[in-house]
Amino acid sequence: MIRVYLDWNVISNLKKPEFKALDDFILLHKERLLFPYSPAHFKDLMKSFSPENTKFETDLKKLQEICGKHYLGWRDNQVVPLFGTPQEYFENSKDQPENSYLDEFDFEKHVSDLDDLGKDLGLDNAGTMIKDLLQNQISGINLTEESKGLLNKMFPNLNNDSSLWDFVKDYGSFTKSLMQSGSYYRDFRKNLGEYGFKVDANSGNWNEDEVIQNIDIFLKSINTSFREYVDTILKSQQDKYSYYDFFTTAYLVLDMIGYKSDKLPKSTDNIQNIQVDADHAFYGAHCDYFIGMDKKLLLKSKVLYSEFKLPIKVLTPDQFIGEINAVIHLEDDKKHLIDNIFEFYKKEKIVESWPPVEESEPVVEAVKLDKYLFDFFNYAVYSYYQSEEIMIITGCISILRSLH
């Protein structure tokens, strides 16, 4: 089926009168189109969760009505299609403590937890021993006149004699502040700009397929490229990372260096708003269409889809109905099934061909289809055996294996 990923803003607005035509179209074509939901939808939805909030229940029901059991989940370092309703997902996740991930950056707590675990295993003060080792190593931080302004913003308690433990603690505090406070993130982003780490003010007018190329030129001054910079950020945090980490970090880097940066206007907004947008763009990359209303989200998504050569069409709700109507395969009842299929074969749409090496082998041509054959296949392979005058047609779909 044709896979359509709706950003949360689209789904949450379907209950409004001005979106009735879109809502009716989606419900009418649910047998032809697949609308998956993802963890990103729940990150948005859970912002309004409370037992007294009837709007939450309305939004949850709408999500279930649109998406059914089609869930895109993250398992074993890859996105996989799973089955489960939004209601079931909610029941399994509603008791998870909010912002529990911030505990990852409380390194004093990690020391205490390791001490407790060590006692159970007969190893006293295991966490304290690691802390002592870090306290006896110099951090290697070099505060120069050029760098101390930005570094003091990130790590206010550090100096050139600070220990590695001092750095670890300040890194944890910096990350928590970045995640929790929108004003802190905006201020940090502004500081980056003041130190020259901000793309041209005209970057908003760049074509999406030129953005990364232009950023690479911008980053030449520090002898790196966009991909290398993202890679450096990730390797500073962990030895191994997934393509989810790379894609969402790349999205955040675009925002941080000034390409279509999110203004975060509300007092409750913070870097997590950008992270959720990055998640929507990531899961949307595993579908055929990504539909959204936030122009900055759509443009950053287009840039990354172009960079990673992902054939996802990015549309607004206004564009969606016309676009989908153009690719839905409505069979002509007056024609035979084979005649319907042969209408898809067009010489100008051949993407690859293989002439026969031996006489018994077929002429093989792979064709990009204008419409989705049976609302599922977007490619077809036509194999013609000349001596037998037999044609074998195999439907194919483009599958995203990796973003990286």
Explain what this protein looks like in three dimensions.
This protein has 404 residues and is α/β, with parallel strands linked by helices. The protein folds into two domains: 1-96 and 181-328, no CATH class; 337-396, no CATH class. The protein is built from 17 helices and ten strands. It has helices at 8-13, 20-28, 39-45, 54-67, 86-93, 107-120, 126-135, 148-154, 164-180, 182-194, 211-219, 226-235, 243-256, 271-284, 295-307, 317-327, 337-342; strands at residues 2-6, 33-34, 70-75, 78-83, 289-291, 313-315, 350-354, 363-373, 377-385, 390-396. The strands form three sheets. It has a four-stranded parallel β-sheet with strand order 2-1-5-6. It has a four-stranded antiparallel β-sheet with strand order 7-8-9-10, with no helix packed on it. Strands 3-4 form a two-stranded antiparallel ribbon. Strand 3 (70-75) and strand 4 form a beta hairpin. Helix 6 crosses helix 7 (126-135) and helix 13 packs across helix 14. The radius of gyration is 26 Å and the shape is globular. Residues 400-404 have low confidence and may be disordered.
